[in-house]
TrEMBL record:
Source organism: Pseudomassariella vexata
Cofactor(s) listed in the protein's UniProt record: Zn(2+)
Record's GO cellular component terms: cytosol; nucleus
Full protein name: Adenine deaminase
Molecular function in Gene Ontology: adenine deaminase activity; zinc ion binding
Ligand binding (Zn(2+)): H16, H18, H207, D288
């Protein structure tokens, strides 16, 4: 498309990417060797080499098939320098694609369960954030995600630990979110956590409507009072919900290449971009897990452009909505607009 150079130059915000999902096979093998972590090659031959793992990433049956690889790969992250290397590599790549503001998810329970402390993760991630600010003039935030496949008390304990350490009060974490396996774990299960976060004045988002139905998005709004919805793809199946998202200016953080790779949709052409645009829903376009899904943010923009041929004016509207939906200071918003 003749708009590719325009899209590359367009200042972008990213709101939906899991930092562990930017762990490229090459860095995974490097860190596993350094830390003496054995990958389960006896159980899955895909772990034999960078090439075989990369080949395995070309096809995922569904969300859980992907998550199996995602949680094993992140076990190579051990010390603060590993988290710094991971996050810095993502920030550098994002900066090269003109991301000016990035809000990054991480999954603390997947690390504390292996004996990696909160302070280790935070030290590494913060070091990378300082470098992104200094070297790329990129603003960044961390969103602490809790895992849906673990019990509520585990999420509560992790939330209380982060809150007790002052990570929300001091701005280290901008918000909480929820991710991992979706269908068996409807949003209403997490009411206690979201009530506690709201009472503490903490921002709230959750993955919903990726594989799960539009009703999970409704639950996220009704029961969790989520201020943002990650994916929300299947919201298009409920006209009343679409109207509500428009009225409330709720940001959907969409990830088209992820949706294709996880077989939520058959192809980018099936992505409901026109429906969301025409309804006036506020959304941003994001990479989700770029090391697994074959593209960073710009490849997601390109894929939409190649399939839907948006106008410059439409892209400018999307870019503006993604600034307005960002969790940064009002002052930073003005700079980004
Ligand atoms: N964790 C990492 N990527 C995810 C996704 N796309 N959905 C749910 N949980 C995730
Ligand atoms: Zn995600």
């Amino acid at each position: 498309s003749p708009l590719h150079p325009f899209l590359a130059a367009l200042p972008k915000c990213e709101h939906h990417m899991h930092i562990e999902g930017s762990l490229e096979p090459s860095l995974l093998f490097e860190l596993a060797a350094k830390n003496g972590i054995a990958l389960p090659v006896d159980k899955d031959a895909a772990f034999a080499s960078v090439e075989s793992l990369h080949a395995r990433y070309q096809t995922f049956q569904n969300l859980d098939d992907f998550l199996g690889y995602y949680y094993i790969a992140m076990s190579a992250l051990v010390d603060a320098a590993d988290f710094e290397a991971l996050a810095y590599a993502y920030f550098a790549k994002a900066a090269s694609q003109n991301v000016r503001h990035a809000e990054v998810f991480f999954d603390p329970q997947a690390h504390t369960s292996r004996g990696v402390s909160f302070s280790t993760m935070v030290a590494g991630l913060k070091a990378a954030q300082r470098r992104a600010q200094a070297e790329f003039n990129m603003s960044t935030e961390l969103i602490m995600c809790l895992l849906k496949h673990l019990p509520l008390p585990d999420a509560m304990k992790t939330f209380e630990e982060a809150k007790g350490a002052g990570y929300f009060a001091d701005g280290t974490f901008a918000a909480i979110g929820m991710d991992s396996s979706e269908k068996p774990f409807p949003p209403k299960m997490w009411e206690e956590l979201f009530v506690a976060a709201k009472e503490a004045g903490i921002r709230r988002t959750t993955h919903a409507g990726e594989e799960g139905p539009a009703d999970y998005v409704v639950q996220a709004l009704d029961v969790l009072d989520a201020q943002r919805i990650d994916h929300g793809l299947r919201s298009v199946e409920d006209e009343a919900l679409l109207k509500r998202l428009v009225e409330q200016k709720t940001l959907l953080t969409l990830c088209p290449l992820s949706n294709v790779k996880l077989q939520c949709i058959g192809s980018v052409a099936e992505f409901p971009l026109r429906k969301l645009l025409d309804a006036g829903v506020r959304f941003s376009i994001n990479s989700d897990d770029p090391a697994y899904f074959g593209g960073y943010i710009l490849e997601n923009y390109y894929a939409l452009q190649d399939n839907f041929g948006l106008t410059i004016r439409e892209w400018e509207g999307i870019a503006q909505g993604s600034v307005l939906g960002s969790w940064c200071s009002e002052e930073r918003k003005q700079e980004l607009l």
